[in-house]
Amino acid sequence: MITKEHLINRFVSYITVDTESDPESTTTPSSSKQWDLANALVEELKHIGMDDVTIDENAYIMATLPSNVDHDVPVIGFISHFDTTPDFTGANVKPQIIENYDGGDILLKGANIVLSPADFEDLLLYKGQTLITTDGTTLLGADDKSGIAEIVSAMEYLINHPEIKHGQIRVGFTPDEEIGRGAHKFDVQKFGADWAYTMDGSQIGELEYENFNAAGAVVTIQGKIVHPGYAKGKMVNSMYIATDFINSLPRLETPEHTEGREGFFHLYSVNGEVDGTRLQYIIRDHDMGQFEARKEMMRQLANDLNTQYGSERITVDIKDQYFNMKEKVTPVMHIVDVAKEAMELIGLKPLIKPIRGGTDGSQLSYMGLPCPNIFAGGHNFHGRYEYVPVESMQKAIEVIVTIARLVAKK
Question: CATH says 4-211+324-409 is which class?
């Protein structure tokens, strides 16, 4: 398989390119800096010997590994995204390579920033392995540059080992997944696969075909500002109304209090002044009925508060982002079974569970490309405590190669 050194070098070359997406932008990609890595990936795909390497006007990359068998084989695909979240900076990433991890604390930046198994017990799964961490000042970008590194490395391995039989394989890399737009302009017909897998999961062994139904909500509160010395009966402080709105939603139905298939409201941005406040939420639930109820709860809360304040102070704008892929994958469960078999063949126990998030695969499944999600190896995405075990990435490469081999046999 691909050597550890080669894989580390490839991954580091990706994460040191800033590709943070911008939710306020209307362009695709949402940030011009995503082109830097996109263009480099195009050249790398050509260099390793992939065919039909293309990049369109929106930075969607596709490439082909031709079949090397003489019988009909389904066309399969592997997809990852190259943007990183705007939740935490991905500029000037300075990775740390921890070889033969001893199971103890890992010092990041300064004495008060420590990656510790006391806080992140999963670290103990990787004692004796090679970890790549942040330096504590940025995220790492394993979400989802580890997936890209695994797909490119698997294709390189198959090209260099033609004795491994496989059908036609398509690969795709997308912008803007982290802001919910990764599949918006993905050309499923051009991609031409019967099904695909996103390499965008976390812990080694993860295999997922259920995800949240997702929406974004912007709550706008209009206040009224006057001189505070003469404000009685005149001033309306939008921030107090915003506080009422925030506190009226179920406090325990938030990310930090939920797990499994439990949904939540997540307030991730507040911008406020007396005259106006803007709240940004994401709404998540695996169950469609409960998802719709959550959206209605926010609308009804706004109506109730408007009645209480005697005017239309609050508006709620809710936009659906993606839906649970289970509905589209269940009818073709053999594509999950193939991935499960591949993991078992290389000695992994599949961890089949719902995604507490989303991937391009959820949207792609509704666009006609069934697309379960496979682990990419990283942990603690979207922050300074992100890390990835190199051995997990190597196993992900093996999974891709083994899926290709199994599909060619069936």
Answer: alpha beta
